């Protein structure tokens, strides 16, 4: 990663912005008839009125704080909006990436594993992020120039990796071909990696931050759900496989991120798990 100068941002104000948006989201959780759910593309990808309301709230706050910065989010809120990432005009240009509800399907089923997340791309690199879990009221933030913290208290660096008890979060995605999904699960078994599928990259990242898992390996992610979490994890000493120099972040993305020992041990170059991450994914 190239060196990036720190941006002048009010961390507390950004945390409050995301937390207030999370409280707005919490008003939809577990309330029958309150959520209006639409399947966006016929592949298990859902959007609700909560997603749109939360993104609108965050976009408004970001525009007030950083009127010159670009913003992109998962939902298209107004005619003419785009959820396509466009690289900034300058090498150090700023783009805020927002996922208003990472784990929408969990939300629709009354499951607490969902999050609000924002991330800052500076010159195409994740440099700052926030993840907020509304149900448990846990807010994680940090980045290149900001000490990672949970509800205002510093987070420790990632714990040492135990190669005899590897445990990872995984993401599969409904668009990943079923035969490949089966092969991926078989590869995890062959590599002796225990796993859990949560249905939210952000919540899976949090499990790595807390030391509950060693890493996260996914065959299908969107940019919005990964920037904030990866910025925080990088600041905690994590390493990953995603090539941020590629510039084109649209479509379905494949990646692994976690403790250095886990990535080197289980997702090493030439390994069977690495082979899955090198393949392309349907858009």
From TrEMBL:
Q: Does the keyword Magnesium apply?
A: yes
Q: Which GO terms describe its molecular function?
A: inositol monophosphate 1-phosphatase activity; metal ion binding
Cofactors demanded by this protein:
Mg(2+)
* Keyword tags: Magnesium, Metal-binding
CDD domains for the chain: IMPase_like
Q: Could you tell me the superkingdom of the organism this chain comes from?
A: Eukaryota
Point out the coiled-coil segments of this chain: none
Q: Name one GO biological process term.
A: inositol metabolic process
Presence of the UniProt keyword Repeat in the record: no
InterPro entries in alphabetical order: Inositol_monophosphatase-like
Q: Name one Pfam family in it.
A: Inositol_P
Residues at which Mg(2+) binds = 74, 99, 102
Q: Which family does it belong to?
A: Belongs to the inositol monophosphatase superfamily.
Q: What is this protein called?
A: Carbohydrate phosphatase
């Amino acid at each position: 990663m190239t060196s990036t100068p720190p941006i002048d941002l009010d961390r507390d104000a950004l945390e409050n912005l995301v937390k207030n948006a999370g409280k707005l989201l919490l008003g939809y959780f577990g309330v029958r008839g309150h959520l209006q759910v639409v399947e966006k593309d016929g592949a298990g990808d859902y959007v609700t009125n909560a997603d749109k309301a939360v993104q609108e709230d965050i976009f408004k706050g970001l525009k007030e704080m950083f009127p010159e910065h670009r913003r992109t989010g998962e939902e298209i809120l107004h005619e003419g909006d785009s959820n396509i990432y466009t690289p900034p005009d300058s090498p150090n240009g700023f783009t805020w990436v927002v996922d208003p509800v990472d784990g929408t399907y969990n939300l629709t089923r009354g499951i607490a594993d969902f999050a609000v997340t924002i991330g800052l791309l500076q010159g195409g690199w994740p440099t700052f992020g926030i993840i907020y879990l509304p149900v448990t009221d846990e807010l994680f933030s940090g980045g290149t120039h900001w000490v990672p913290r949970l509800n205002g208290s510093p987070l420790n660096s990632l714990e040492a990796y135990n190669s005899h008890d590897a445990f990872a979060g995984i993401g599969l995605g409904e668009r990943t071909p079923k035969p490949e999904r089966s092969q991926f699960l078989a590869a995890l078994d062959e590599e002796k990696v225990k796993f859990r599928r949560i249905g939210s990259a952000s919540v899976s990242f949090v499990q790595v931050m807390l030391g509950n898992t060693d890493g996260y390996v996914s065959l299908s992610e969107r940019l919005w759900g990964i920037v904030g979490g990866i910025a925080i994890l990088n600041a905690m000493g994590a390493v990953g496989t995603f090539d941020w120099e590629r510039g084109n972040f649209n479509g379905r993305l494949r990646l692994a991120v976690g403790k250095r020992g886990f990535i080197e041990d289980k997702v090493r170059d030439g390994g069977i798990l690495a082979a899955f991450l090198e393949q392309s994914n349907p858009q």
